[in-house]
Design goal:
The protein is α/β, with parallel strands linked by helices. It contains 15 helices and 13 strands. The strands form three sheets. Strands 7-8-9-10-12-11 form a six-stranded mixed beta sheet, sandwiched between helices. Strands 2-3-4-1-5 form a five-stranded parallel beta sheet, sandwiched between helices.
Length: about 425
């Protein structure tokens, strides 16, 4: 991608910082999420391991003298390094020899099998996770409400207004945050997610560990994960979904397939938050099912914006997944992680953002405005349950919506359209 056409990513500054502090940086993430473009923007030279004209020569070099592939202006970008896993140890060794920062950038859209590298790279190779684009990065969120400002208590009442209608949210959800599809309209904008899913089913999920997988079972598994998106569906639920089609599958196979999908950054479940509470209450620890981008769910279900607008219940789950993607990207830019909360009483919060310094915030996701009061009640009940002496007081409470206007309620809760949020 031309640097003139490059849309800035929130991880651009993370990459610069990582290069200033480490000898090498590994950028991991789903295929087509923009890793190569981002890395190329700062690279001094590049070697594309999957370049059809040179792939055989590069592989031969990696097998005989991998250091040859490391020669070039720094930072030296090695794209899809996992094609030749020996390069990991070669980079680690070269970083030790040069004793300089910012020497290499590695990009990879798959985690290689365990034990293919002799060393972890700790202390030499910094890791950076990259996801598809958030709505702020694709210039579809106004960014008038900042996660950082909310945590710092400096977010003013700016009268923020989202430009996204419900129909447009349905479109960006089905299109996804894939950089190559951002400026495409209609079916061409949605097509990339469909192609991505077919590549997963027919090639990528088997290639990652060299174990051949039944494409029909992979498709049925993806459909079950899509149907159960943003829920805590168990393996038993997934198994029953698949076997309803008269195709049998074992728990071991489901686990193997999901691990493969995780290693190619397709599946990214949301872990549960376990805070200190004022009184004893069993906290559910089951993860919520999510893809790295909600467009994977719509593509595997073979639906489109018009289709999800006809099913507002499912649209709500997909919208939660869209918000999860964006909040994860914004939280990472603030050195934070994202979780969900649910206890035995049924009290839940869709998203908990926890920064490394211990500050936290709770977010409920509601597509429409009718459920705002219910969401506010949940958030205030959660706040009352938390042991603030141990956890600290919530930096803010938020209801993330598909609506138009952002405002702060009298009870202090922020109501924010996803089309107004940024890092």
């Amino acid at each position: 991608m031309s640097k003139n056409l490059y849309l800035s990513r929130l991880c651009d500054s993370e990459l610069i910082l990582a290069l200033q502090s480490s000898g090498a940086v590994l950028i991991e993430g789903a295929k087509w999420c923009g890793k190569t473009s981002t890395a190329s923007n700062v690279a001094g030279s590049v070697v594309y391991m999957q370049d059809a004209d040179n792939a055989i020569s590069y592989q031969a070099m990696a097998d005989t003298k991998p250091s040859l592939l490391l020669k070039g202006h720094t930072p030296r970008l090695i794209d899809e390094w996992q094609v030749a896993p020996v390069l990991w140890d070669a980079v680690r060794f070269e970083v030790d020899q040069r004793i300089e920062r910012g020497q290499f950038i590695l990009t990879g859209s798959a985690v290689p099998p365990e034990n293919v590298t002799a060393h972890t790279g700790t202390g030499r190779i910094s890791r950076l996770l990259m996801r598809p684009m958030s709505l702020f990065e694709s210039l579809e969120s106004t960014g008038q409400i900042s996660l950082k400002a909310l945590f710092n208590g400096t977010q003013g009442d700016v009268g923020a207004e989202s430009a996204l209608s419900i129909e447009q949210i349905a479109h960006v959800l089905c299109r996804g945050g894939w950089p190559a599809s951002i400026n495409r309209n209609g079916l061409s904008g949605v097509r990339m997610a469909m192609d991505y899913v077919e590549a997963i089913i027919n090639q990528d999920v088997s290639r990652v560990d060299g174990i051949e997988k039944n494409p029909e079972r992979v498709r049925l598994l993806l459909r079950s994960l899509a149907r159960n998106i943003a829920t805590t569906a168990t393996y038993q639920t997934i198994k029953e979904d698949i076997e309803a089609t008269d195709i049998s599958i074992s728990d071991k196979t489901i686990n193997s397939y999901i691990n493969a999908l995780r290693r190619i950054f397709v599946v990214e479940d949301l872990a549960a938050w376990s805070p200190s509470l004022r009184s004893k209450s069993a906290i559910r620890t089951t993860k919520k099912r999510h893809f790295v981008d909600p467009s994977i769910a719509t593509a595997v279900m073979r639906t489109n914006p018009e289709g999800i607008l006809m099913d507002f219940n499912y649209f709500g789950f997909l919208f939660e997944s869209l918000c999860t993607r964006d909040v994860r990207i914004y939280a990472q830019a603030n050195d934070g992680d994202v979780f969900h909360y649910r206890d035995k009483s049924g009290l839940e919060a869709d998203l908990i953002v926890r920064l490394r310094d211990g500050r936290w915030a709770a977010i409920e996701v509601k597509l429409g405005n009718k459920q705002i009061e219910e969401a506010a009640t949940h958030l205030l009940a959660l706040k009352a349950k938390i042991n603030e002496e141990k956890m600290g007081e919530a930096s803010f409470l938020m209801i993330l919506t598909g609506g138009q206007y952002a405002y702060q309620r009298k009870d202090g809760i922020w109501v924010v359209p996803i089309g107004c949020l940024k890092d």
